[in-house]
């Protein structure tokens, strides 16, 4: 039976719920949905998602300590057997940037790496977060899928205007090298493996100008899986809205199908078309 994992930065769960997120949740075939930037307390998140929770979704939430910033969550069709908020960081565990849940033999995590700003204390904070998260992920054992908004375009294929962003946060050499380190440590970028050598598929477009209409985007919403289970990923797609006015976030859900992955039993099957080259 196939198992489906989606990830999406909702750009505020209360706003997204009112714009179309609830309808998407009612229609999706995902077994687990990783959510970033809820920008809400636990009570506010539960209130915004109340119809989905009443429909059977389980919520695993890490609310942010700073009002209106960050916040990550997982929605799942079955209750996880264990939950962990953060990764043992004194600085970041209360920030609402990392949460993981165990489903049988598989651990699924939702991560939000903030955007940064080159040459500023905000970028320094991003690097500290990356260093601690990377150290944690590199020593993880077992079957792990880490999904989220990493706010890093790994290669020139991952953003439309790469030449104009060589000195911009999100495409800095140090950030891209960090993704290299994670891949070398035993993780696979499963969407890129399924879509090799192509531009994108982009998952974020600025609200400014005509970025969405021109598909001038960034691929910064990644699904990384440990190498033992990465080969189980057989299809991936970005669920890009049909039109600008149908968007409920500036990000689109990234959805990956895994075949034969234990532990994520859900109530629906997928009609994703296999994308393996």
Care to describe what's here?
It is a single chain. Strand 7, helix 4 (121-138) and strand 8 (143-149) form a beta-alpha-beta unit. The chain has a single domain (2-259), classed as Deoxyribonuclease I, Chain A (4-Layer Sandwich), CATH 3.60.10. The two termini are 22 Å apart. With 277 residues, the protein is of the alpha+beta class. It is built from six helices and twelve strands. Residues 265-277 have low confidence and may be disordered.
Quick tags:
single chain, alpha+beta, double-stranded DNA 3'-5' DNA exonuclease activity, globular, six-stranded mixed β-sheet, Deoxyribonuclease I, Chain A, 277 residues, disordered C terminus, ExoIII-like
Reported CATH architecture: 4-Layer Sandwich
Uncertain runs with pLDDT below 50, 5 residues or more? 265-277
Strand order of the largest sheet: 3-4-2-1-12-11
Structural class: alpha+beta
Largest sheet: 6 strands, mixed
CATH fold topology: Deoxyribonuclease I, Chain A
How many individual β-strands? 12
Domain Endonuclease/exonuclease/phosphatase: 7-251
Pfam families: Exo_endo_phos (PF03372)
Keywords: Hydrolase, Magnesium, Manganese, Metal-binding
Protein name: Exodeoxyribonuclease-3
Give the helix/strand layout:
Blueprint: E1 2-9, H1 13-27, E2 32-36, H2 42-48, H3 50-54, E3 58-62, E4 72-76, E5 82-85, E6 98-103, E7 106-112, H4 121-138, E8 143-149, H5 173-184, E9 187-189, H6 190-194, E10 221-226, E11 233-238, E12 254-259
Parallel strand pairs: 1-2, 7-8
Antiparallel strand pairs: 1-12, 2-4, 3-4, 5-6, 6-7, 8-10, 9-10, 11-12
Site (Interaction with DNA substrate): 251
Keywords: Hydrolase, Magnesium, Manganese, Metal-binding
Site (Transition state stabilizer): 151
């Amino acid at each position: 039976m196939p198992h489906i994992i989606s990830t999406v930065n909702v750009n505020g769960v209360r706003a997204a719920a009112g714009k179309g997120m609830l309808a998407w949740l009612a229609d999706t075939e995902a077994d687990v949905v990783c959510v970033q930037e809820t920008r809400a307390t636990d009570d506010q998140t539960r209130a915004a998602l109340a119809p989905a929770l009443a429909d059977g979704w389980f919520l695993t939430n890490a609310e942010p300590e700073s009002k209106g910033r960050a916040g990550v969550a997982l929605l799942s069709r079955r209750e996880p057997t264990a939950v962990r908020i953060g990764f043992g960081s004194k600085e970041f565990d209360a920030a609402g940037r990392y949460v993981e849940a165990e489903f049988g033999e598989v651990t699924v995590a939702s991560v939000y790496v903030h955007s940064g700003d080159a040459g500023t204390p905000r970028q320094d904070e991003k690097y500290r977060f990356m260093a601690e998260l990377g150290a944690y992920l590199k020593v993880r054992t077992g079957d792990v899928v880490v999904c989220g908004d990493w706010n890093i375009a790994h290669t020139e294929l991952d953003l439309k205007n790469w030449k104009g962003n060589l000195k911009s946060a999100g495409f800095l050499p140090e950030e891209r090298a960090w993704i290299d380190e994670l891949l070398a440590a035993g993780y696979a970028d499963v969407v890129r493996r399924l879509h090799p050598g192509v531009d994108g598929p982009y998952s974020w477009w600025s609200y400014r100008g005509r970025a969405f209409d021109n598909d001038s985007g960034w691929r910064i919403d990644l699904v990384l899986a440990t190498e033992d289970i990465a080969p189980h990923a057989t299809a991936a797609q970005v669920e890009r809205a049909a039109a600008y006015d149908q968007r409920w976030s500036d990000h689109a859900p990234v959805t990956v199908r895994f075949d034969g992955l234990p532990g994520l039993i859900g109530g629906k099957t997928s009609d994703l078309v296999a994308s393996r080259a």
